């Protein structure tokens, strides 16, 4: 299955944010989006999901236009930049709600055993993010949109999560953006840079320096 978003024009008031953006996400691949602060990455994910209405856009699934918001299709899961799960919900309830096995989660992350009867707000920011990323990855969605998944996550958990991401990608199209660009460049099969309102498909990492996303000599 493949998902395309095309001709995205977004303005807030008189400010142009995105102009003629194109991005393709394919099943079995991780599509990375990089871009400076305020370049419109979160907005693009919201538009893809269907929760933000731009001035113009076209979404296609397997080359066929889709006019209804994608979230109504049941095919897409969106991990927002900020919290996904309410703080007053018990973590085990969240796993029940998503129909994801708590025991299987503990096999990966045994340190969470102590939170078996805790509310989400009792977890640290990074721990909460680990649980949210895991729930998103294990969801049956065909398109997974992840907005800055790695913020606040410590290196050991990051290693485990990237292994799970690699093992889950075969049946999904995963789109992710993060300022921890090395994680994105290592994971991504396809990479886009959003800058000055435009999207560019990156073929060689050196282009990230040429387009002034990274300082010369960073790579
Ligand atoms: N609801 C809104 N109303 C007005 N302007 C907005 C709104 N949402 C976002 N913006 C503006 O749109 C631009 C793009 O924001 P967006 O959050 O999509 O960027 P981003 O690339 O995800 O940024 P960051 O990397 O800092 O999270 C910013 O200039 C932001 O101030």
From TrEMBL:
InterPro entries named among the record's database cross-references: AAA+_ATPase (IPR003593), ABC_transporter-like_ATP-bd (IPR003439), P-loop_NTPase (IPR027417)
Domain (ABC transporter) ranges: 3-219
GO terms for MF: ATP binding; ATP hydrolysis activity
Annotated TM spans: none
Pfam families per the UniProt record, alphabetical: ABC_tran
Keyword annotations: ATP-binding, Nucleotide-binding
Name recorded for this polypeptide: ABC transporter ATP-binding protein
Lineage, highest ranks first: Bacteria, Pseudomonadati, Bacteroidota, Flavobacteriia, Flavobacteriales
């Amino acid at each position: 299955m493949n998902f395309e978003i095309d001709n995205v024009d977004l303005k807030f008031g008189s400010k142009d944010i995105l102009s003629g953006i194109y991005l393709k996400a394919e099943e079995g691949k991780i599509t990375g989006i990089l871009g400076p602060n305020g370049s419109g990455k979160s907005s693009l994910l919201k538009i893809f999901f269907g929760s933000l209405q731009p001035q113009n856009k076209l979404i296609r699934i397997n080359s066929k236009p889709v006019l209804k918001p994608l979230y109504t299709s049941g095919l897409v899961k969106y991990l927002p930049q900020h919290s996904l799960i309410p703080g007053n919900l018990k973590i085990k309830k969240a796993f029940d709600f998503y129909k994801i096995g708590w025991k299987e989660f503990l096999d990966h992350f045994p340190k969470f055993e102590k939170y078996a009867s805790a509310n989400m707000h009792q977890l640290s920011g990074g721990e909460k993010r680990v649980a949210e990323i895991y729930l998103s990855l294990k969801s049956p969605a065909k398109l997974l949109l992840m907005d800055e998944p790695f913020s606040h996550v410590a290196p050991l958990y990051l290693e485990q999560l990237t292994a799970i991401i690699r093992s889950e990608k075969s049946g999904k199209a995963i789109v992710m953006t993060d300022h921890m660009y090395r994680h994105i460049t290592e994971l991504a099969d396809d990479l886009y840079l959003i800058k000055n309102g435009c999207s560019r498909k990156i073929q060689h990492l050196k282009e990230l320096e040429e387009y002034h996303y990274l300082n010369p000599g960073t790579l």
